[in-house]
Design a protein that fits this description.
Layout (H helix, E strand, L loop, with lengths): L2 H8 L9 E2 H7 L3 E2 L2 H9 L1 E2 L1 E3 L9 E4 L12 H6 L4 E4 L1 H10 L5 E3 L3 H12 L8 E6 L4 H16 L2 E4 L3 E4 L2 E4 L7 H13 L4 E5 L2 H5 L8 E6 L13 H9 L7 E7 L3 H9 L4 E5 L9 E8 L6 E6 L5 E6 L5 H15 L4 H9 L9 E4 L7 E5 L4 H11 L7 E5 L9 H12 L2 E4 L9 H15 L6 E3 L4 H11 L5 E5 L6 E4 L2 E4 L2 H13 L3
Parallel strand pairs: 4-5, 5-6, 6-7, 8-12, 8-13, 9-12, 13-14, 14-15, 15-16, 20-24, 21-22, 21-24, 22-23
Antiparallel strand pairs: 1-3, 2-7, 9-10, 10-11, 16-17, 17-18, 19-20, 25-26
Helix pairs in contact: 2-3, 6-8, 7-12, 7-13, 12-13, 14-15, 15-16, 17-18
The protein binds ligand UAG and adenosine-5'-triphosphate.
EC number: 6.3.2.-
Protein name: UDP-N-acetylmuramyl-tripeptide synthetase
GO molecular function: acid-amino acid ligase activity; ATP binding; magnesium ion binding
């Protein structure tokens, strides 16, 4: 994500945050003044906020200078002080740098500064999560989808819900692009405080494993934590799957959450549920034998409405007929998880079921741009950008496609080159018509990326029938896909989902598939 997103995230702050004495903050996070003069500062100073980023400091706030993977944050202390920081929280190495670069600035010491940022941020923003119904979803896949389902349900129940995840940071009507899946603790606490200030009663969060390990969620009171699944990913950060699971498992401890709902469809979920240190509901979303408190039967994809219907059974004999508007059986796991989490958060079942059924248009996640109506075809934007996700996405839309399945796709530059022919192979195998285009070529020659994809296509379809290559611009390819789409056909454009930029030749170009596809739909069929 580019710098603009970080700047926008910084704008989501409460309008009035009563200042907190530095002494109280030091006590809350067991901070030690670096010098006797710094101890005196505790008596006189009050803080109005906190940041780990010097570029994000407002006058009166504290700068937490963290030892980073690349640099020591204390290197930026002078910049923070110039912006109005009243004190710096750091380790002893950082204190040395501050003494050199901005002498006289009060310094509070912590042996692991990253670990105190959460509690400090919660304290300075007055523990807003304690007053909100807060949910957090973790797992390799399905976090975004499940958290949007929860957003819809909690909004229906409480009037509004705050959202912090991969796609957006939203409080009330204000939404900004999200810099990452789970933002730094000060950004999150500010958003929660703003939500409280604006009368928003709930928060739906995504919890990445990076965030859990890097303490971004510390001191956030989560009412219900949810776990979707664990698949191979991020083994550069967590060295083994066991370590990856243990990172997620931290969310299911009383330090973070009051209760949990865990999908036990894979063995990792079963292990997590068995080892969890908080009360946990076990949910089985797919057919299987694993013991569970809640389980799903009759999962079906409906052709007419592109909806998925299922029955959710509960521990007290509940039998809940539910539906979600996203196709694909993976979304049954996400939908059932959202339902059980909502029920455990106190949402009446009827309210939850109705809101889930209406949870349309998650940005870039099987997002329907036009519905099949006898004249128009079904037009969808989806984020699938790996061979596995592409396989799932195409398998999800095939049953709701009486005619041809058209896929518009490309592959990233400066990333995993091996997946390019694999994507071509999957699409050639599972779709009828292929329109090959660019995704984010970045510094690479887009023609070479497309050639690698086409090599994979050729391995399945040597004659290259029903394969088109669009060499001009991604928007033209999306338009071509829609042009080819008949009333019984489906066109799915994959790879970029919600992304607001296309990265090419060192530039971030404003581009989003959804409005481009909507324009193509209007050009072909007129306004609905
Ligand atoms: C690996 C990782 O998570 N790194 C995080 C880490 O960065 P770092 O230690 O490398 O920071 P650094 O560049 O050494 O800088 C040290 C400190 O100086 C500060 N600084 C730096 C520059 C400056 O001008 N002013 C300033 O104050 C930085 O905010 C930082 O606190 O600490 C920074 C803030 O303290 C985070 O912004 C940064 O996240 C980076 C951007 C990141 O890309 N993280 C990814 C891996 C991530 O968290 N991903 C997960 C989910 C992934 C997924 O599910 O796909 C996510 O939640 O998004
Ligand atoms: N429950 C699930 N199980 C397996 N795959 C899923 C599941 N839910 C979604 N997917 C697949 O993963 C893709 C990403 O879904 P989603 O954005 O909801 O997950 P995520 O955990 O937020 O991932 P990311 O952090 O990459 O956005 C979807 O396009 C879909 O193909």
């Amino acid at each position: 994500m580019n710098n603009q997103a970080y700047e926008s995230a910084a704008s989501l702050r409460p309008k009035h945050n009563p200042p907190v004495p530095l002494g109280a903050l030091a006590q809350a996070a067991s901070l030690v003044p670096a010098t006797p003069q710094d101890a005196a500062a505790l008596e006189s100073l009050q803080a109005t906020g906190l940041s780990v980023d010097s570029g994000d400091i407002l006058p009166g706030e504290i700068f937490a200078a963290l030892p980073g993977f690349n640099a020591h944050g204390a290197r930026y202390a002078a910049q923070a002080v110039q912006a109005g920081a009243i004190a710096v929280v750091t380790d002893s190495q950082g204190a040395g740098i501050v003494a050199e670069t901005c002498p006289g600035t009060p310094v509070l010491l912590a042996s692991d500064p990253r670990a105190v940022v959460g509690p400090l941020a919660a304290e300075v923003y007055h523990h807003p999560s304690r007053h909100l119904v807060t949910t957090a979803v973790t797992g390799t896949n399905g976090k975004t989808t499940t958290s949007y389902f929860l957003d819809a349900i909690l909004s229906a129940h409480l009037g509004a819900c705050m959202m912090a995840g991969t796609i957006e940071l939203r409080v009330g009507r204000r939404s900004v692009e999200s810099p990452r899946t789970t933002v730094e603790a000060p950004v999150l606490q500010r958003m929660l405080a703003l939500a409280l200030e604006e009368g928003v009663g709930a928060a739906s969060l995504e919890a990445s494993s990076h965030a859990i390990v890097l303490h971004r969620l510390d001191a956030t009171s989560i009412d219900i934590a949810g776990f979707t699944n664990l698949q191979r990913d991020h083994l550069d950060f967590h060295s083994t799957m066991e370590e990856y699971l243990q990172a997620k498992a931290q969310l299911f401890t009383p330090e973070h959450s009051s209760r949990g709902v865990v999908c036990v469809d894979d063995r990792w979920g079963a292990q997590l549920a068995a080892e969890a240190a908080i009360p946990v509901d076990r949910l089985r979303a797919y057919p299987g034998q694993t013991p569970a408190d809640w389980w799903v039967t009759d999962a079906t994809v409906s052709l007419e409405e592109a909806a998925t219907t299922f029955t959710l059974h509960g521990p007290d004999g509940e039998e809940i007929a539910a539906s979600c508007p996203l196709p694909g059986l993976v979304n049954v796991q996400n939908a059932a998880l959202a339902l059980v989490m909502a029920i455990r958060a106190g949402v009446p079942t009827d309210t939850a079921v109705t809101a889930l059924a209406g949870a349309h248009n998650i940005p870039g996640r099987m997002q329907r741009i036009s519905q099949r109506d006898g004249r128009r075809g079904l037009c969808i934007v989806d984020f699938a950008h790996t061979p596995d996700a592409m396989e799932l996405a195409l398998a999800a839309v095939r049953p709701i496609t009486p005619g041809r399945l058209i896929v518009v796709f490309g592959s990233d530059g400066d990333r995993d080159q091996g997946k390019r022919p694999m994507l071509g192979e999957v699409c050639a195998r599972l779709a009828d018509v292929l329109v090959v285009t660019d995704e984010n070529p970045r510094s690479e020659d887009p023609g070479l990326i497309r050639a690698a994809i086409l090599e994979g296509v050729r391995s399945v379809r040597p004659g290259m029938e029903n394969v088109e290559e669009i060499t001009t611009w991604r928007g033209d390819a999306v338009e071509r896909g829609v042009e080819l789409c008949g009333p019984d056909d489906t066109v799915i454009v994959t790879g970029k989902g919600h992304e607001p930029f296309l990265e090419a030749a060192g530039e971030f170009i404003r581009y989003n598939d959804a409005p481009v596809m909507a324009q193509a739909v209007e050009k072909k069929w007129g306004r609905p």
